């Protein structure tokens, strides 16, 4: 069970009132007493119940959506958050958004956790989204707060039990997209995406499988040339063209990578899709409004968010239970950036 203010007072050999004055940062506390209380708080991993102090009359449960190491402006994760908010609003739950950036090589005990996690009682259950590493997961487990995770973006070398996680099928989409380009007659199909990231590595494996099954050589620009998705797509396409490699189609591991590649090809006088076909991944909102509209693999981000919220509520109500992982299907959406390389008669031969 979480430590209480009484436990802190007992460990520091002071009154509960003194502990309360230290927690609320009153200036008239003896420095020696303050240090004793703070040391007891640290040793007991005590988290003051902020909601009990400020929202005593409000019994509405709160879920905290923690977006780690990503920008809220990222359309992918903002779409997931939208789904979380929609489901919680219809179910009578509040959603508290928290942005948290941290380094993967910091020990769990040394992480400077956001206030929503340090204060006991602010959030009843956590949704861990964005990009997360094992050190943060370990720190959250030590807090004893129920949580669920976005499975695709949890970076870990450990085998993960298929519970308390929501994600999407990162194998079928890239595989189907590559097979589609092959059926259009393309043979020089390139993959663009930084395989240092596990989700891009998974998509490359699916692309590679489709290519090998068709007796085609996989061709990947798999080294990240920029941390910005668009810039990486642009620079990768420049690299392919500058080296004189043959390319008639590209599967890009994310829509914004595809946007950058498209602009690079156009700068070199190559038309999409007349000269080069491109398939993206994710189906961000602007993909359908590009000129031409982007062929892409659709991930229903709002649906991912709704399933995360549903599982978090279930977890809140039954914190000792483990809920089976949810893996949502994806869909290839055929739009204007792909076309046959060969005449239709040749494709049917």
Q: Can you tag this structure with a few keywords?
A:
349 residues; alpha/beta; 434 Repressor (Amino-terminal Domain); Rossmann fold; 3 domains; six-stranded parallel β-sheet; six-stranded mixed β-sheet; 13 helices; 41% helix; elongated; disordered C terminus
Task: Give a structural overview.
With 349 residues, the protein is α/β, with parallel strands linked by helices. It has three domains: 5-46, lambda repressor-like DNA-binding domains (434 Repressor (Amino-terminal Domain), Orthogonal Bundle); 62-168 and 303-330, Rossmann fold (3-Layer(aba) Sandwich); 172-298 and 332-347, Response regulator (Rossmann fold, 3-Layer(aba) Sandwich). It has helices at 5-12, 16-23, 31-44, 50-54, 75-91, 115-118, 134-143, 172-183, 198-213, 229-242, 255-267, 301-317, 344-347, and strands at residues 62-68, 94-100, 125-130, 132-133, 147-150, 154-155, 165-168, 189-192, 219-221, 249-252, 277-282, 295-298, 326-328, 331-333. It has a six-stranded parallel beta sheet, with helices on one face. A six-stranded mixed beta sheet has the order 9-8-10-11-12-14, with helices on both faces. Helix 5 (75-91) links the parallel strand 1 (62-68) and strand 2. Helix 2 (16-23) packs across helix 3 (31-44) and helix 5 crosses helix 12 (301-317). The longest helix is centred in the first third of the chain and has 17 residues, at 75-91.
């Amino acid at each position: 069970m979480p430590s209480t203010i009484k436990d802190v007072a007992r460990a520091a050999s002071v009154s509960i009132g003194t502990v309360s004055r230290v927690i609320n940062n009153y200036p008239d506390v003896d420095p020696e007493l303050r240090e004793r209380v703070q040391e007891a708080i640290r040793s007991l991993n005590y988290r003051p119940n902020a909601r009990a102090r400020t929202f005593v009359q409000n019994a509405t449960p709160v879920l905290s959506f923690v977006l780690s190491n990503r920008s809220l402006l990222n359309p992918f994760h903002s779409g997931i958050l939208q789904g979380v908010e929609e489901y919680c609003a219809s179910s009578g739950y509040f959603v508290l958004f928290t942005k948290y950036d941290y380094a993967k090589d910091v020990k769990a005990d040394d992480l400077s956790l956001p206030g929503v996690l340090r204060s006991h009682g602010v959030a009843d259950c956590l949704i861990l989204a964005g990009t997360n590493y094992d050190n943060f997961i370990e720190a959250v487990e030590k807090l004893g707060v129920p949580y669920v995770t976005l499975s695709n973006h949890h970076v870990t070398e450990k085998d993960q039990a298929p519970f308390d996680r929501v994600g999407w099928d990162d194998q079928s989409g890239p595989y189907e997209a590559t097979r589609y380009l092959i059926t259009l007659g393309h043979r020089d199909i390139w993959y663009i995406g930084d395989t240092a990231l596990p989700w891009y590595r998974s998509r490359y494996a699916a692309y590679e499988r489709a290519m090998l099954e068709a007796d085609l050589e996989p061709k990947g620009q798999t080294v990240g040339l920029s941390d910005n998705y668009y810039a990486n797509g642009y620079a990768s396409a420049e690299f392919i063209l500058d080296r004189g490699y043959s390319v008639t189609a590209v599967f890009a591991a994310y829509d914004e990578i595809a946007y950058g590649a498209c602009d690079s090809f156009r700068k070199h006088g190559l038309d999409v899709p007349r000269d080069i076909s491109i398939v993206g991944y994710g189906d961000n909102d602007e993909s359908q409004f590009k000129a031409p509209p982007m062929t892409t693999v659709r991930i229903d981000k709002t649906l991912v968010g709704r399933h995360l919220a549903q599982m978090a509520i279930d977890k809140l109500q039954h914190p000792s239970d483990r809920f089976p992982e949810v893996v949502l299907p994806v869909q290839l959406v055929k739009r204007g950036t792909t076309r046959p390389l060969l005449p239709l008669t040749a494709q049917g031969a």
